[in-house]
Write a structure and sequence with these properties.
heteropentamer; A mainly alpha (358); B alpha/beta (407); C alpha/beta (274); D mainly alpha (316); E alpha/beta (252); B: alpha/beta; seven-stranded mixed β-sheet; 43% helix; E: 252 residues; binds adenosine-5'-triphosphate; binds magnesium ion; transmembrane helix (chain D); amino-acid transport (chain D)
């Protein structure tokens, strides 16, 4: 009876298109917002900020970017890691060339670069489909990482070949670099991620979103009903890469503090893909659920043996960890191939008809 | 009473093969101290491992997890070291990166919290060149520098480039991508085309075995191939066995089965069933290196305890300890590390110690020493250290520098 | 003809089954039916009535669509078959021809037919002989034997699918909408073949069909399914004479067949909206 | 211009023995790529599953073999036992992973194989540890010497091992092709790839076929593992070479055995040539990390289904 | 619209051979013929999915230049498909809304911001779509994902999507396949009403002779790529070629 939609009538199309047509959902969202904006920052430890809160937000954003491309527009990409890299390197160059630039502005700008490169690598998608396209995006993945390694201008000719985030001060607080406090970085990330989420939701529920979904579900039919496939696919690549690029910039500037080229390796792409898929392709909220699971799970697993005082060596824990994550991925795919988001929807459907089984 | 000295170990991932013996050596030595002496100065050592799999990401996570109580952090990869380096400055925890990390860390004035005892990569490069020079001069020769395409592999490049000009040899850098470690035929074809007089190798993990097997296959004369200390792992050479005879590696550690410390480890750790190692591994170079690394840390703890008169030292007290290690011959004997590590000492400005090292050679079954103790030509790169350290500090401004220490 | 079949033993019995998709969507709400040996049984009903679902429940193909039988039993020759996998069922002689043809696009027509003989162990010669038999039923297939099935026309694909089923030497064929999208001539032709196979080889058919008119002409008995329930059953003649069937399934009212142009009111009973 | 375009060819002509060596090395790595790709193709054909776990299966097979031998099992018995383990693995994967996921979208199954990869990495490291191990080349009776030829007064080294690999791979491919095209099982495998549901409906047992196919992929993995292991030792780092199979597949076509072979050879040889004559002199080396992908990408622009892939049937 | 000497080949296969016919404004034009005759291919040519190997298409008297399918759609041609081509991952409402895409033009930025232009456009188009939904009586399934719908309803949603585009030319490829008589009656009604109310020109492919004969104004008969008959229904029904090739036994 708690979750009951009956009786909430909509009287205008506008109301029907509201983000949360169901009152309970709006309340739930309010709770989540209070948690993330007030309660977490007040209570979280340094460890929680660094290993849970900040990375979960950043990974969720990256997955959201990927989800636009893969979940909404149906173009499977395995090059997310490299596009995050483009965002990160672009941000690094912006900050070092224009030291006066506001870091948030720099982060938002750096997405533009990855969007450009995303479009360039998206062009083959007009002809190549499915797994062939996925492998083709690997060309971007490997080529870009190679470029990060070889093009020393990108990392200002540092001897180590890595980029290091300098200390950046804005409005009297350190927002990036080793001097910055975790809580500041958390808020910066939160602001950017919230902004991006709102934009993504708007894009995916409107005309563009429908264009993408049509392209995804059946591109031939989409073209025949008047969708310009090239435009549809390329905008998906551009916007997806933009979001991914921004997340890459956040990744390095607001969390890692430094990066070497192989950080943006294929493993990163897979990680983001896991999040998107476990969360649910074609959903925005799912990315958060996926990120919580994929980022949070190993952290929790790591602390378990110590909590129970089990005498297992850390290496074994790590091996078990890998096994468990692998097994869980399979497990979640089996119980709900359409991701956590869908699981949530099913629960909701059950709640609506509760206490009747059908 | 307990001292928390965690280790960001890696026993998994593509580099596990080289990590495991090192971690075992480190852990066994600490376990031995706990069993034999009840720790150091009465304080037990908590030598917990946090598994990184050599991944920078996991490494940072481990650092964040342990930094609350830890008095030292041992990041165990150049990548992780680079990442936590600026953080340790803020968190005020010493990084101990024995024989790896960022070469300019030798400058204690700039890198107050970082230590790469007993020798750094530039020491290694300098000694290798010195040794090769001794084999008949380097003027007009050609050296192929086969290295991992990764911050670690690039470390010695600035020095090698500088020395190439000075000593008159030609340097051909040949990078090996992380994905090509197992399949280096392109690199070795290049070596065959270039016909270098020597191959100097900066390899790690699976890259070493790959390079050594390729060298044997392409019939490169093994005696003209020299590796840094991380490329001198017994297991890598065992793959080719006798065909690898003549291969050399510089090292600041050496296994000595007769050293008292080995006997102690055997009685207190191995016989008690607390070791993860085995006999074959314990006879190897890397296991002994693990022991030496732990011994250095233990020594620093002891020095700090004496200075501050407390068994439970904190991170900044340990930092003082690390700056005042004096591993003299006598002290090495006392610790039972006979012949396992060259003498060295650190100071406020000198965070490396520049211990020098021996050239080891694979005789087909094991590594043997083929040189006296070599020592690096510090003057060659003292300037370079200062310069690069300053560059780093500038890029990371505001970067607190320890003005108090001179010389 | 119908009387001949009626006397025979029940071959397949479906008792009161329920099917749920995706754990929440209840599609069949207690369907029971009987297929007699040597007969042609038609399963009729509008869109979404659950015909396909019933057939899939019998041949155990629901699993891969996240559907499951939650209640009731299915007996084949008196034996429960619900736990068998589809392959075992084919060995027992029950084979399904799926809705929408489902040929193996990249295999040639002949290879498609040969896959039908997959479960058989009676040697090459027998299979060759049956291949010839199928080609005599469907001469068109012989012409196109070497072309990839994906590029053949709809009718050819339908023939290919039926032929493929025949290759397994079945006792019972579950045939799902054989007439969909076929030219009238072909529809007749295919039903003629169904009858020929039924009479010649003694194969029993369970036939899901929209085209009530044709189906009732060839079938012996029929069931009418609506919203997951059987609402009517009986011999083909009795169904044909039933006024409701006449009006809603055959498009005839008292005055005879009406032109589509003249139908002025929407007479739908909005079954699926309920 | 001259430097980039003409000079490399001049070099090739000037040192033909070296060029031959380059081609030979390319050929051998090409064959090895192709072997991994074969495993992919087989599984893809029968189930449209893009089996990412093929790489780790190679490692797993090799580790099991070496591990069993280290426990004192004679070499050939260890091979048999390893095959049995691969069979069990195939059964387990079918039971636990594939069966519940029948009929799901491709990408879900793809993800599941990545799950399998992670699981096997963890399991393998717990059982076998992460150290580099030596392949039991001699114990298996694989020749290890080399031929040294001197064409045009130059030098050409051919490893016996490599020659063995080339021969074994050729036989394996021949056998596979015959199996797929001329047997009942082979036809069923191809049918299954086109349409699960229809295959089920004609009585093809998914279970049997999948176990069979994964087992064959396991056998291929073992052969690949022995071959690579003999070259570079056996460790988890081997897994990364599996990525090289991807452009091979793309170039050859995901469902074509012939494609896998030709694609493998093309990529092996071309990437070596490019790296030696262009990559190293002009681009700072290591172009092998991406060359194959870019090459495949360019080919795909002209033939979206790869050189030998099945034509994508697009109709409405 | 007029088709002149259209020929279409796939490799060696000739799917359509030298066919000409015309479509008059406002009429219902049926195409019939045995399976594989090339009917769908002809529709594909009209909607731009295939380009004719030879021949030309005249649109309102002027030759139509080579166009991408989406450009054709924007000239007011909408269609349904033989094997349903709905967007399975979307709800019915969204599917029908895609039909409006050719009429919606707000930019990416305004969409990202949502409030303002994009929303107004969305609401305006939603109204049109709701009218179509009402018309086809699919209100109740508005929010259902189409993947779950039964076949017949899917066909209707497809029609709704095509209608939402407010086309001038509507191409229907076997809209009544797999329906029973009652459903066919409804569908016929919709088709006639569209034709009457909006004056939409309709091209219809259908195998049910009853439907074809009752609805269409003129019929083209194709057989193996050739045209074997053209004219009003009754005339075609009596044509012996047509009976031989297609109808088989005289219907009813
Ligand atoms: N995979 C599925 N998931 C959810 N619902 C389904 C699924 N398959 C079918 N249904 C639903 O089950 C009901 C019955 O479908 P079924 O295909 O059995 O009908 P049918 O009688 O064969 O209709 P048609 O004549 O259109 O083929 C329909 O309402 C359909 O929406
Ligand atoms: N993309 C294609 N490639 C090759 N051949 C094709 C292609 N599309 C259609 N054909 C061939 O063209 C011929 C005509 O096909 P079409 O689909 O137009 O027939 P149809 O008249 O619509 O038949 P049906 O009534 O069965 O739908 C067939 O022989 C078919 O195999
Ligand atoms: Mg049906
Ligand atoms: Mg057609």
């Amino acid at each position: 009876m708690l979750y009951r939609t009956a009786g909430q009538f909509k009287t205008s199309y506008r109301a029907d298109q509201a983000l949360f047509p169901v009152r309970q959902d709006a309340i739930l969202l309010g709770l989540v917002l209070i948690l993330t904006w007030v309660i977490f920052p007040l209570t979280a430890s340094e460890f929680a900020f660094q290993t849970l809160l900040i990375p979960i937000l950043i990974y969720a954003l990256a997955a959201m970017g990927l989800n636009i491309l893969t979940g909404f527009a149906g173009q499977l990409s395995l090059g997310t890691g490299a596009f995050m890299g483009v965002g990160a390197y672009a941000c690094y160059k912006l900050i070092t060339i224009f030291p006066w630039m506001n870091p948030v502005v720099a982060i938002l700008l750096s997405g533009v670069f990855s969007a450009g490169i995303g479009v360039a690598f998206g062009i083959p998608s007009l002809r190549i489909k499915g797994f062939y396209l996925a492998i083709a995006t690997l060309a971007a993945q490997f080529f870009l990482v190679w470029l990060f390694e070889k093009w020393s201008w990108l990392y200002n000719d540092n001897a180590s070949g890595a980029i290091q985030v300098p200390n950046i001060e804005t409005l009297g607080v350190w927002v990036a670099g080793p001097q910055a406090a975790s809580i500041t970085q958390y808020y910066v990330v939160l602001i950017v991620v919230t902004l991006m989420t709102v934009l993504c939701i708007n894009l995916t529920r409107g005309t563009l979103g429908r264009t993408w979904k049509a392209t995804r579900d059946m591109d031939i039919a989409a073209e025949l009903i008047g969708i310009n496939l090239m435009r549809s696919k390329l905008t998906a690549f551009a916007i997806s890469s933009y979001v991914v690029g921004v997340s890459g910039a956040l990744f390095v500037f607001m969390w890692r503090g430094a990066a070497e080229p192989n950080l943006f390796d294929i493993q990163l792409s897979f990680r983001v893909l896991f999040i998107a898929i476990i969360g649910g392709l074609g959903s925005i909220m799912g990315n958060y659920l996926g990120a919580i699971l994929i980022v949070g799970l190993p952290v929790v697993l790591n602390t378990l043996p110590a909590t129970f005082g089990l005498p297992i060596s850390s290496a074994t824990v790590e091996h078990l960890n890998i096994m468990i994550v692998g097994a869980l991925i399979i497990f979640f795919l089996i119980i709900e191939p359409h991701g956590l988001n869908q699981l949530w929807r099913l629960i909701r459907e059950k709640l609506i008809i509760w206490p009747f089984p059908h | 009473q307990e001292l928390y000295v965690p280790n960001l170990a890696y026993r998994t991932g593509p580099f596990a093969a080289t990590g495991i013996p090192l971690m075992n050596g480190q852990a066994d030595y600490m376990a031995m101290l706990n069993a034999r002496d009840g720790g150091i100065g009465g304080a037990k050592l908590n030598f917990e491992e946090c598994e990184t799999g050599y991944s920078t990401e996991k490494g940072v996570e481990c650092y964040e997890k342990t930094k609350g109580r830890a008095i030292v952090t041992q990041p165990w990869s150049t990548g992780i070291t680079l990442q936590v380096l600026p953080k340790t400055n803020v968190d005020e925890i010493p990084i101990l990166a024995p024989g790896y990390g960022f070469s300019p860390m030798a400058d204690g004035k700039v890198f107050q919290w970082a230590y790469n005892t007993p020798a750094g990569y530039w020491d290694a490069a300098s000694m290798i060149l010195q040794y090769l020079d001794g084999q008949g001069g380097l003027d007009g020769k050609k050296i192929a520098f086969l290295h991992l395409d990764h911050p670690y592999g690039k470390e010695p490049l600035p020095l090698l480039e500088k020395k190439a000009g000075e000593m008159g040899f030609e340097l051909v850098p040949i990078p090996v991508g992380l994905k090509e470690m197992q399949n280096q035929s392109a690199q070795w074809l290049q070596i065959r085309r270039e016909r270098p007089d020597y191959v100097v190798m900066w390899g790690w993990g699976a890259m070493n075995a790959g390079a050594i097997t390729e060298a044997v296959k392409t019939k490169f004369p093994m005696e003209n191939m020299v590796g840094v200390w991380w490329s001198g792992h017994d297991a890598d050479l065992k793959i080719v066995g006798a065909d690898g005879a003549g291969y050399k590696s510089i090292s600041w550690s050496f296994p000595n089965a007769d050293a008292p410390v080995m006997a102690d480890i055997k009685t207190h750790v191995v016989d008690a069933g607390n070791s993860q190692s085995n006999e074959e591994e314990m006879a190897g170079v890397f296991y002994s290196r693990g022991i030496v690394i732990s011994a250095i840390l233990a020594e620093a703890i002891r020095v700090a305890q004496e200075e501050y008169g407390t068994a439970e030292i904190d991170a900044s007290q340990l930092r003082w300890g690390l700056e005042n290690i004096d591993m003299s011959e006598a002290r090495i004997e006392e610790l039972g590390l006979t012949g396992m590590v060259p003498p060295f000492s650190t100071s406020c400005a000198n965070h490396t110690g520049h211990s020098g090292g021996w050239m080891l050679e694979w005789d087909g079954e094991k590594f043997v020493k083929v040189s006296d103790l070599l020592s690096a030509d510090l003057e060659d790169y003292q300037g370079l250290i200062g310069e690069k350290a300053q560059e780093y500090a500038d890029a990371n401004a505001p970067w607190p520098v320890n003005e108090g220490c001179e010389g | 003809m119908a009387d001949a079949a009626a006397g025979k033993a029940p071959l397949l019995e479906v008792n009161n089954i329920e099917v749920i998709y995706n754990h929440v969507i209840l599609v069949l709400k207690g369907v029971s039916l009987t297929v007699r040996e040597g007969g042609i049984t038609a399963l009729l009903g509008g869109n979404g009535a659950g015909k396909t679902t019933t057939l899939k429940a019998i041949s155990n193909l629901l699993h891969s669509e996240r559907g499951e039988v939650t209640k009731g039993t299915i007996l084949y020759r008196g034996e429960r078959v619900a736990h068998l996998d589809p392959a075992a069922l084919v060995k027992k002689g029950v084979i399904q021809v799926m809705e929408g043809r489902h040929c193996f696009e990249h295999l040639t027509v002949e290879e498609n037919l040969l896959t039908g003989a997959y479960t058989r162990g009676d040697g090459k010669a027998a299979i060759e002989a049956d291949l010839e038999m199928v080609y005599t039923y469907f001469p068109r297939l012989k012409e196109r034997r070497k072309s990839q099935a994906g590029y053949t026309s709809g009718g050819e694909q339908q023939m290919c699918a039926i032929g493929r089923a025949l290759m397994s030497r079945p006792e019972t064929i579950l045939l799902d909408e054989p007439s969909m999208g076929l030219a009238p001539q072909l529809v007749e032709q295919i039903f003629e073949i169904v009858r020929a196979v039924n009479e010649g080889e003694g194969v029993s058919f369970l036939l899901a069909e929209q085209n009530t008119n044709v189906a009732l002409r060839y079938a012996h008995t029929g069931y009418i399914l609506e919203s997951g329930r059987v609402v009517m059953e009986g011999s083909a003649e009795s169904l044909r004479e039933n006024p409701d069937v006449k009006e809603f399934y055959l498009g005839m009212s008292e005055e005879g067949r009406k032109s589509f142009r003249d139908v002025r009111s929407y007479r739908r009973r909005k079954r699926w909206l309920a | 211009m001259y430097d980039y375009v003409i000079q490399p060819f001049v070099e090739m002509v000037e040192a033909p023995d070296f060029l031959l060596q380059v081609l030979w090395e390319g050929l051998v790595s090409g064959i090895l790529y192709a072997l991994i790709a074969l495993g992919f193709v087989l599984i893809f054909r029968s189930s449209r599953i893009f089996n990412f776990a093929q790489g780790i299966m190679v490692v797993f097979a090799a580790l099991t073999l070496v591990g069993l031998h280290a426990m004192g099992v004679p070499a050939w018995i260890a091979v048999a036992a390893t095959l049995f383990v691969m069979f069990l693995l195939a059964v387990a994967i079918e039971r636990v992973v594939l069966r519940p996921l029948v009929g799901q979208p491709d990408i879900i199954l793809f993800m599941a194989t990545i799950g399998i990869t992670l699981f096997l990495i963890g399991l393998g490291e717990i059982i076998f540890g992460g150290e580099n191990k030596v392949m039991i080349t001699e114990e298996l009776g694989i020749p290890t010497g080399d031929f040294v030829l001197e064409p045009w007064g130059g030098l050409l080294i051919l490893q016996h091992l490599d020659i063995t690999v080339v021969v074994v791979a050729t036989l394996l491919v021949g056998a596979l092709l015959a199996f797929l095209n001329y047997t009942r099982m082979g036809r069923a495998i191809r049918a299954l790839g086109d349409d699960h549901q229809a295959a089920l409906s004609v009585g093809i047992s998914l279970q049997t076929i999948w176990v069979l196919v994964w087992f064959i992929a396991g056998i291929i993995a073992l052969v690949t593992g022995i071959a690579w292991g003999a070259r570079a030792g056996v460790s988890f780092a081997l897994e990364v070479i599996a990525y090289k199979a991807l452009p091979v597949l793309m170039l050859g076509g995901l469902e074509s055995i012939t494609g896998a072979i030709i694609g493998g050879l093309m990529i092996g040889i071309l990437e070596k040539l490019f790296e030696i004559y262009w990559g190293q002199p002009f681009l700072g080396g290591n172009t092998e990390t991406w060359f194959a992908f870019v090459l495949a990408l360019i080919v795909l622009l002209f033939r979206p289904q790869g050189l030998f892939g099945e034509r994508i049937i697009e109709r409405v | 619209m007029e088709m002149r000497n259209i020929t279409l080949r796939f490799g060696g296969v000739v799917a359509i051979q030298d066919i000409s016919f015309d479509i008059r404004e406002g009429e219902i034009r049926a195409i019939i013929g045995p399976n594989g005759a090339g009917k769908s291919s002809m529709l594909n040519i009209i909607s731009g999915f295939y380009t004719a190997s030879e021949g030309e298409i005249l649109f309102r008297g002027a030759p139509r230049p080579a166009m991408k399918p989406y450009e054709v759609a924007r000239t007011g041609v909408a269609r349904t498909f033989q094997n349903i081509a709905l967007f399975e991952g979307m709800t019915v409402l969204d599917n029908v809304m895609t039909g409006r895409l050719t009429h919606m033009h707000s930019g990416i930025l305004s969409q990202a911001l949502w409030w303002g232009g994009a929303q107004r456009e969305e609401v305006a188009n939603r109204e049109i779509v709701e009218k179509v939904i009402d018309f086809l009586e699919i209100q109740a399934i508005r929010k259902t994902p189409v993947g779950r719908l039964p076949y017949g309803l899917k066909k209707r949603v497809e029609l709704a999507r095509a209608l939402a585009a407010e086309p001038t030319l509507l191409l229907l490829d076997e809209p009544m396949a797999g329906m029973n008589v009652e459903e066919k009656e409804d569908m016929s009604r919709f088709i006639l009403d569209v034709n009457d109310e909006f004056g939409t020109t309709i091209v219809l492919i259908e195998h049910d002779m009853g439907v074809v004969m009752d609805l269409s104004d003129r019929v083209v008969v194709m057989d193996y790529g050739k045209k074997i008959g053209d004219g009003p229904p009754d005339e075609v029904r009596a044509n012996q070629d047509v009976i031989d090739a297609y109808l088989g036994v005289p219907h009813e």
